[in-house]
Inverse folding.
């Protein structure tokens, strides 16, 4: 116990010397202490009388002197102020009297020996009157004293003006590659990164350069840029410059606008996350916040004082003196150990405003915004209040069998009257790290003992030394140091008894007292969640980009869809065709110079004329189409809450062949539930659990109270008595088995109950590192046996029905669960009488539970264990085998001695301890039963995974959880089919063994691979190509214990090796790297945070929404864009064919057939709306798409957009272009150019409108309106085209029949061929519709 608490308790009066008067400690020559007497006289008189005083008078405790002086101080604070004209003299005398550092001065209390402050505070009742008479004089003395040494500001503390939110940090940027020293609660000497989350892809400076680079990295954008720039050169100019520049500018504006909109939306979402507010302690120098500098800082101390008053029960005179002493002690603490180093107030700060050194106050279920070191952890006020209430009820009768006091203190008091409350009560804290590393188990975190017992007002004396930022989430090394007080005086946080009487070893011992090591157990990283019912004070050590979370996350990147690359390749082919055609036309003329133009100038002019072959409007149509797809996705009522964060890759949703999924929070809810229990002869599940509850009521309803007030508790040897009249022997045996296994499950765990007050109701919650154990304890409560209390020494169980204590055990040993042992055990000693002290002769039992793989060889021989565990495993349940063994007192003593010896071994200590346990305990355990715990799956996970597998998607599960957990979830989610072989690779360290495992897998292509992170790292390092070549052929792969970096590496490896589209889905911050590394990243809005959702390309609320997102929206987006792209290419190619024929007919002159407005209008208002309406087309309904996922599988064959379909459209374009322009020249002639242009252009427009109608599968009203409306716009604008057409000829019959004839010849043959193909080889969607 620290001196902090030792000072708070009044000490018992010491014995009086027989030869001395029973004088009060307050007897003192006031003339010696007169602050107004000259200093020299006081000093001389003290020196002369020192020996006499030490021999004849009691020593003057410095604490008592200060205490009585404080009565005067407190009186002055209440308004009894006095003049202090002799302030300087008073300060000097008070320093001479109170300066502990100059303890050798004559007359000072410090010179009386090191025990001066520890002298008794109270002597006897008869002394009180004498001290009371002198109190008025001492009060006047105290009103004049000024404890300057106690309130002098420390040079390492900030001034009152020094700690403001607006003050800048240090001028020097901290080197991220060096260690750091953090001054707690103060401004730092160096600058650190801002604590802001950013998923933005661009900054204000990088937006234009990066986006323009990305755009012009595509060939056809670069091609049109060169074409537009060529119009600056006069010999190459054809028509107006705006004809070529305006379309390119429009395309870039649309694309850059979409990118800017998406990035601004990301920034807004980041701003929401960064605006989350937190309670921060703002420290100031003394007196800034006097009302809050003490009382809230140490609630445990006040609680102890109340408990001491209640139990000590002094007489009336002592009670008054005790209360006065406590009041003085509190005043003293506010001045001595406090007038503290600083005062504090709670303020609100946004997450982005947090800085290194800030002290956070965190509560249950609060996300931790930065990497922090825990300074203190205390039970929440509602929990503390509940325990205090239990303490108040401690004196009530316990004969009724009710357990008195649920807190550790009350339990300790029952066990031992002299037990004291630990200083670190409630110091434990649990955090959830599933958003960081994917592990479902809660992590135990503890503050350093140095900081846990430290008053909050003294936090500014702390310095934390930490290493450089690192992405290792399971490693941390640092130290925390408590700086000495610069003011002279007593330091309550340094144990003076350990320093000794001499000053030689004071520094060395003090250094050990003031410095402590920090490990991973003292930290909490960003994006973890405080899970326990406690209030935690923590100092920020790493912020922003230097947190573990940020360092494990890859930077955002711009994603480009596969369709874009495919169209880019087709564009290169078209450009090559254009260049070849230009050379052919120039070559046909003989490369002769004509009209002063060189042949290469003619080639360039032809290239510009044929630039429509590579349609610039293609990008405009595709980008606008993506926006339509995004709107459809976000407004689909079947997948509410879905958000499209990257609108440039919706087509890739229809091309996914590999799905990489997280487990925790994605496939599962991370909520455990005990679903099945088997006790050897009978199995219970679902509704049969009611029968288990009836057995428990019968077993624990037999607790009786005798006339002597004794309450008999249950022990395992108690006889099970059935209350049913029809109870048979078999039923009694089964009831006893059920009772024993439920009791074992209620005792064999590491769960701690806490009671909280919510909305006026008391709610019991459980804290443990494993959610499995919490699920089991909740189940035992549901069947009638509640865990009432648990501390380090005792476990108390209560009957739910009667609310009486039925079991009380003392914890003798605990053997925690580890990944190597795969089991946990506990040795307990039962108490039979609730009211009597613990009976050392009570029964001793060893309980153990663990995985069936290890427990099979530990429990006694049986014929049902293997079969039942296999049955539960096939159901996807996590099995635990439960056993017990009774130990005699001699057996336990022998084990305890050998176990203690093994724990002192310097070599192979763990193995030695395990050997002792195995020899004495883990032999011939009585098999009690098997439990099956289910990790609840997300809604419709099983049918969703089944549908995706039928759609041809190979599913990988990447998780940070344990191997056994991953296996069970894979089976329960039907990721692994029934009876499918699971090949497990775990803890592999040799390269040769890794190759052997891969060779085995090559021959079993239908197996599922289960591999842990260690083995995966070996594979990726030594056999990268061989591993990925084998793994991508398997139907399912499960990788567990994966770090965020490994998840991202796997995604990148699959992309690089297969060249297929990968989709990664997750819900936690540990999934962000994987999501950003994938071609398509999908984030699920998690319970604890939205990190994955914010960083993803698509955000959904449930995993089952992914199926509709892929098989319906993804399929439609891809098929629509493929059809749209090819139709736009057809539209540009057909007009280029017309230009080619005209150039040939005009003796190879590079003269434009359609100029200016005709060229621009053709690609915009005359054809754009009908062509763009193809984005509304669909071939099947949503229900059929989900019913036949094989339709999605066909998309992997690339039949919608391939070289084959591309050249078919090229052939159609060449045919129709030749027919339209050739027949127009034949039927009208070249002599009348306006008439020929009118006929060919009109046929060209009608041809495109009718071709759009022929391509429609399912009509939409917008399609009909766009086709008819565009036709009306064209014919309505013809009178305005007098500069290009012969308007009189247009209204003639000759014009009409020529247009109809040419259109028929152009359209009928392609449509007939299409019908024949559909009849001979109907597409799959037509087969489905026919069914």
């Amino acid at each position: 116990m620290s001196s902090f608490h030792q000072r708070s308790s009044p000490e018992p009066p010491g014995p009086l010397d027989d030869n001395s008067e029973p004088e009060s400690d307050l007897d003192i020559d006031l003339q010696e202490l007169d602050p107004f007497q000259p200093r020299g006289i006081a000093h001389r008189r003290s020196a002369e009388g020192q020996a006499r005083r030490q021999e004849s008078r009691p020593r003057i405790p410095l604490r008592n002197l200060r205490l009585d002086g404080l009565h005067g101080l407190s009186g002055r604070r209440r308004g009894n102020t006095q003049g202090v004209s002799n302030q300087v003299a008073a300060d000097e005398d008070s320093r001479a009297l109170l300066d502990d550092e100059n303890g050798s001065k004559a007359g000072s209390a410090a010179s009386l020996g090191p025990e001066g402050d520890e002298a008794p505070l109270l002597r006897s009742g008869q002394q009180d009157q004498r001290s009371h008479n002198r109190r008025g004089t001492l009060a006047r003395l105290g009103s004049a004293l000024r404890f300057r040494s106690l309130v002098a500001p420390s040079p390492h503390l900030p001034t009152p003006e020094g700690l403001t939110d607006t003050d800048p940090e240090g001028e020097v940027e901290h080197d991220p590659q060096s260690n750091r020293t953090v001054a707690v609660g103060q401004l730092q000497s160096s600058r650190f990164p801002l604590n802001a989350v950013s998923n933005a892809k661009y900054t204000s400076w990088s937006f234009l350069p990066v986006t323009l680079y990305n755009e012009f990295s595509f060939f056809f954008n670069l091609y049109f840029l060169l074409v537009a720039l060529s119009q600056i050169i006069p010999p190459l100019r054809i028509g107006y410059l705006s004809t070529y520049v305006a379309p390119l500018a429009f395309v870039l504006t649309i694309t850059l606008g979409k990118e800017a909109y998406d990035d601004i939306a990301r920034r807004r979402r980041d701003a929401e996350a960064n605006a989350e507010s937190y309670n921060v302690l703002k420290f100031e120098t003394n007196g800034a916040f006097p009302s809050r500098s003490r009382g809230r800082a140490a609630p445990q101390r006040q609680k102890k004082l109340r408990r001491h008053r209640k139990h000590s029960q002094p007489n009336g005179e002592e009670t008054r003196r005790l209360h006065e002493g406590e009041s003085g002690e509190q005043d003293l603490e506010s001045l001595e150990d406090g007038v503290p180093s600083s005062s504090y107030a709670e303020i609100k700060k946004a997450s982005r405003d947090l800085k290194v050194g800030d002290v956070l106050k965190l509560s249950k279920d609060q996300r931790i915004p930065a990497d922090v070191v825990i300074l203190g952890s205390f039970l929440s006020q509602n929990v503390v209040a509940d325990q205090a209430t239990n303490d108040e009820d401690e004196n009530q009768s316990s004969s009724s069998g009710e357990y008195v006091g649920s807190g550790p203190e009350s339990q300790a008091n029952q066990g031992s009257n002299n037990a004291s409350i630990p200083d670190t009560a409630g110091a434990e804290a649990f955090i959830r790290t599933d958003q960081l590393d994917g592990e479902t188990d809660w992590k135990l975190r503890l503050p350093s003992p140095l900081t846990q017992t430290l008053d909050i007002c003294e936090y500014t004396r702390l310095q934390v030394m930490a290493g450089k930022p690192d992405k290792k989430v399971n490693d941390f090394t640092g130290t925390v140091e408590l700086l000495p007080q610069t003011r002279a005086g007593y330091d309550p946080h340094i144990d003076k008894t350990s320093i000794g009487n001499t000053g030689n070893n004071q520094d060395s011992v003090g250094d050990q007292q003031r410095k402590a090591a920090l490990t991973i157990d003292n930290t909490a990283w960003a994006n973890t969640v405080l899970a326990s019912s406690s209030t935690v004070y923590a100092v920020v050590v790493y912020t922003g980009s230097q947190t573990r979370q940020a360092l494990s996350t890859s930077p955002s990147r711009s994603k480009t869809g596969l369709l874009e690359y495919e169209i880019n390749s087709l564009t290169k082919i078209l450009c090559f065709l254009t260049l070849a055609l230009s050379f052919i036309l120039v070559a046909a003329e003989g490369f002769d110079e004509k009209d002063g133009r060189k042949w290469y100038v003619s080639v360039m002019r032809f290239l510009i004329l044929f630039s429509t072959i590579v349609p610039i409007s293609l990008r405009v149509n595709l980008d606008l189409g993506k926006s339509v797809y995004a709107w459809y996705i976000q407004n689909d009522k079947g997948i509410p809450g879905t958000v499209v964060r990257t609108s440039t890759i919706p087509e890739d949703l229809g091309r996914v062949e590999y799905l990489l999924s997280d487990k925790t929070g994605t496939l599962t809810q991370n909520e455990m539930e005990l679903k099945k229990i088997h006790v050897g002869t009978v199995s219970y599940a679902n509704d049969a659990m009611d029968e288990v509850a009836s057995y428990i009521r019968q077993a624990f309803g037999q607790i009786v109270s005798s006339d002597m007030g004794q309450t008999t508790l249950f022990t395992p040897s108690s006889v099970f008595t059935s209350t049913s009249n029809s109870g048979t022997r078999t039923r009694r045996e089964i009831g006893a088995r059920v009772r024993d296994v439920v009791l074992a499950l209620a005792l064999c765990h590491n769960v701690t109950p806490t009671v909280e007050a919510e909305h006026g109701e008391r709610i019991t919650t459980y804290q443990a590192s494993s959610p499995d154990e919490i699920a089991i304890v909740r189940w035992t409560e549901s069947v009638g046996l509640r865990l009432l209390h648990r501390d380090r020494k005792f476990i108390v169980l209560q009957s739910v029905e009667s609310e009486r204590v039925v079991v009380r055990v003392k914890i003798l040993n605990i053997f925690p669960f580890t990944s190597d042992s795969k089991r946990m055990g506990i040795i307990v000693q039962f108490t039979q009488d609730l009211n009597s002290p613990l009976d050392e002769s009570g029964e001793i039992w060893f309980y153990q539970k663990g995985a069936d793989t290890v427990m099979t060889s530990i429990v006694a021989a049986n014929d049902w264990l293997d079969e039942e565990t296999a049955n539960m495993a096939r159901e996807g349940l996590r099995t635990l085998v439960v056993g017990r063994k009774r130990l005699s007192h001699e057996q336990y003593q022998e084990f305890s001695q050998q176990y203690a010896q093994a724990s002192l071994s310097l070599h192979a200590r763990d193995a030695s301890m395990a050997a002792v346990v195995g020899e004495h305990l883990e032999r011939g355990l009585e098999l009690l039963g098997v439990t099956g715990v289910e990790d609840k799956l997300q809604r419709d996970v099983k049918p969703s995974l089944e549908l995706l597998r039928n759609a041809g998607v190979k599913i990988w599960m990447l998780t940070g959880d344990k191997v056994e957990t991953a296996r069970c979830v894979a089976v329960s989610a039907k990721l692994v089919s029934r009876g499918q072989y699971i090949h497990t690779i775990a803890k592999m360290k040799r390269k040769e063994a890794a190759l052997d495992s891969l060779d085995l897998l090559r021959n079993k292509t239908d197996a599922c691979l289960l591999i842990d992170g260690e083995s995966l790292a070996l594979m990726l390092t030594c056999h990268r190509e061989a591993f990925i070549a084998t793994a991508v052929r398997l139907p399912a792969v499960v990788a567990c214990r994966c770090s965020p970096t490994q998840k991202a590496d796997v995604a990148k490896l699959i992309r690089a090796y297969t060249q297929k589209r990968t989709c990664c889905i997750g819900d936690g911050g540990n999934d962000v790297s994987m999501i950003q590394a994938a071609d398509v990243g999908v984030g699920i809005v998690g319970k604890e945070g939205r990190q994955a959702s914010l960083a993803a390309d698509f955000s959904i609320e449930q995993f089952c929404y992914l199926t509709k997102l892929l098989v319906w929206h993804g399929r439609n987006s891809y098929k629509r864009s493929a059809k749209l792209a090819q139709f736009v290419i057809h539209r540009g190619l057909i007009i280029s064919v017309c230009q080619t024929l005209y150039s040939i007919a005009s003796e190879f002159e590079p003269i434009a057939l359609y100029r200016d407005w005709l060229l621009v209008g053709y690609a915009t208002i005359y054809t754009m709306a009908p062509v763009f309406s193809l984005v509304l087309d669909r071939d099947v309904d949503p229900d059929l798409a989900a019913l036949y996922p094989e339709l999605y599988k066909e998309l992997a064959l690339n039949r919608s957009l391939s070289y084959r379909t591309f050249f078919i459209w090229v052939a159609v374009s060449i045919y129709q272009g030749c027919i339209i322009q050739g027949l127009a020249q034949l039927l009208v002639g070249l002599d009348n150019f306006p008439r020929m242009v009118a006929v060919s252009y009109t046929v060209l427009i009608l041809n495109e409108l009718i071709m759009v109608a022929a391509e429609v599968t399912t009509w939409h009203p917008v399609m009909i309106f766009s086709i008819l409306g565009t036709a009306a716009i064209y014919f309505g604008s013809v009178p305005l085209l007098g500069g290009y057409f012969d308007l009189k000829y247009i209204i003639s019959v000759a014009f009409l029949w020529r247009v109809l004839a040419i259109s028929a010849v152009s359209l009928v043959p392609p449509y007939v061929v299409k019908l024949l193909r559909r009849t001979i080889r109907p597409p799959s969607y037509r087969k489905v519709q026919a069914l």
